[in-house]
Amino acid sequence: MYTGKTISGFLFFTLFTLRLEKWMPPAALLMAAAASTISEALHTVETGGRGVLRVREVVGQGAPPLLTLVTVHPWTSLGGGEHNTLHLGRHLAAAGLRALTFELNASSALWGIATSHAAEVQQVVYVARWAERTFGVPVVLLGSSAGAPIAGSALARLPGAFAYVAVGYTWGGVAMLAFGRHYRPLYACAHPKLFIMGERDEFTAPETLRRYVGRLAGDENEVVVVPGVGHFELEHPAYDGEVVDRVVAWLERRLRERAGAGAATGLPAAADSRQPECDQ
Question: What is the rounded distance in angstroms from the CA atom of residue 21 to the CA atom of residue 84?
């Protein structure tokens, strides 16, 4: 049973998150105009008879990207939305990657707490599979805040994904009440994973993050702690440049490693990226 202290803590978590994520300024207001080297296009993705998702593609105008990053924004039920990842996506495109942003259709029961988030996970899977078919290159799942656990569950259904990136993953403590159901699928996936967290994250201490990451399958599970930064600060567009720099450097290392494997198999680096099936 949950104690009064636990329930009170969760209510604080819910209200605190709602207040901050809902009122984070839309990226469009923070970025007067996208760089001239960036283009954006809107696509529709079918979701198996459950409607369509409007997916925004953000890409640079240089060489075709080797990877597509599918971004998953913070918790819709608490005010998160595509605006939380659009500015980040533009930074990724400026760095030579393709980024996809979209608005999740959220579960509504008790702010999404009393559901398995299966609908949200399936939406991420639909978008990622559509991206693989449409662009012909592997995908990287990038989840922010509560979007990170949802993206982690989707990873378990995407054996062809190149890698997984979590910004402010909500591990342990009170967050477990809402997102603990997503931990097990991620544990079993051997895909390369990068976790970026603020040193002063209000929901997950760095030592808690390292403890959980130490339990994950696979040999490439990296943790980056940004000094002096809290959970919501790290989500803010002011930190998108630093987050993207770390993500791009990490992905470049993964691509160089795959290039060596590709030379051995005769496949291009990005094409030779299929990961082992997640052990469910």
Answer: 8
Q: Which residue type is seen at 182? A: H
The H-assigned helical ranges of the chain are 4-22, 27-30, 83-94, 118-135, 147-155, 175-179, 183-187, 206-213, 231-235, 240-265
Q: How far apart are CA 262 and CA 256, in angstroms?
A: 10
* Confidence (pTM): 0.80
Q: Is 22 helix (H, G, I), strand (E, B) or coil?
A: helix
The torsion of the CA quartet 57, 59, 63, 67, rounded to 10 degrees, works out to -60
The pLDDT tens digits of the residues spanning 99-128 come to 999 999 876 544 445 456 788 899 999 999
Residue 75, CA distances (Å) to 85, 117, 148 in order: 12, 10, 10
Measure the CA–CA gap between 247 and 92, rounded to whole angstroms. 9
Q: Can you name the residues that pair with 194 across neighbouring β-strands?
A: 165, 222
Structure tokens at 139: 């995908």
**What does the pLDDT look like over 154-212, one tens digit per residue?**
999 999 999 999 999 887 666 666 675 667 778 889 999 999 999 999 888 899 999 99
Contacts of 160 by beta carbon, 8 Å cutoff, 6+ apart: 132, 138, 139, 273, 274, 275
Please tell me the distance from the alpha carbon of residue 185 to that of residue 152, in angstroms, as a whole number.
7
Element (H, E) at 39: strand 38-46
From 231, 193, 185, 235, select the one nearest 214 (Cα to Cα). Answer: 193
Q: What is the DSSP letter of 209?
A: H
The sheet with strand 163-167 has its strands ordered as 38-46, 52-60, 98-102, 68-72, 139-144, 163-167, 193-198, 221-226
% residues pLDDT > 90 (the chain): 51
